[in-house]
User: Which sequence fits this backbone?
């Protein structure tokens, strides 16, 4: 006899991140990015990560241009010399890949989660509000809803995810429940395993 018990947990994060099962064969078309489009992409990236402003031309030079790969109808991956460096979901912020973040760790806007959130994030879960405000976590007070962030973990040297805030830092502190950060890409997912396209 098998007995199945289902427990409903409110605010349980979705366990499907956009690159969880990504493979480079999913990229359908590739096109060089026009100069005007590349300027817009870079502008959005710098707006979310102001520390990039002084060195962005060295990190992502104008030539050769980025190459855009369509992953789905809503998701575009941008590569520099076949290496994935940025991605963008329709109507979402331009986000860096983790490998790109690991090359320039001090140049991105970050949040830090407590150690208890690590296994959930590495499983593809979004970050709940308590994970961003518990002891050991760091949440800059001026971050707004939709802000692109690189996710660090308490006591760890390298970033473990990238995503965007689902609510402002002030609301995360005040409400302290629900999803605080939507995880788009995490350490060990299909995109992280893909060094070249």
Assistant:
């Amino acid at each position: 006899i098998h007995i199945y018990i289902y427990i409903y947990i409110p605010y349980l994060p979705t366990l499907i991140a956009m690159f969880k099962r990504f493979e480079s064969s999913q990229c359908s078309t590739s096109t060089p990015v026009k100069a005007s489009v590349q300027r817009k992409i870079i502008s959005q990236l710098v707006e979310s990560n102001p520390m990039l402003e002084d060195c962005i031309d060295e990190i992502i030079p104008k030539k050769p241009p980025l190459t855009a790969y369509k992953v789905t109808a809503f998701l575009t991956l941008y590569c520099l010399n076949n290496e994935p460096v940025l991605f963008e979901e329709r109507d979402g912020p331009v986000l860096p890949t983790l490998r790109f973040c690991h090359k320039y760790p001090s140049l991105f806007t970050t949040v830090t989660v407590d150690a208890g959130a690590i296994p959930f994030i590495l499983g593809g879960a979004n970050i709940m509000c308590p994970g961003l405000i518990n002891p050991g976590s760091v949440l800059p007070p001026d971050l707004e809803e939709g802000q692109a962030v690189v996710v660090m973990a308490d006591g760890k040297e390298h970033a473990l995810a990238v995503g965007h805030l689902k609510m402002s830092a002030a609301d995360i502190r005040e409400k302290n429940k629900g999803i605080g950060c939507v995880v788009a890409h995490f350490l060990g997912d299909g995109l992280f395993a893909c060094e070249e396209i």
Remarks:
- Residues 2-16 have pLDDT under 50 and may be disordered.
- The longest helix spans residues 35-48.
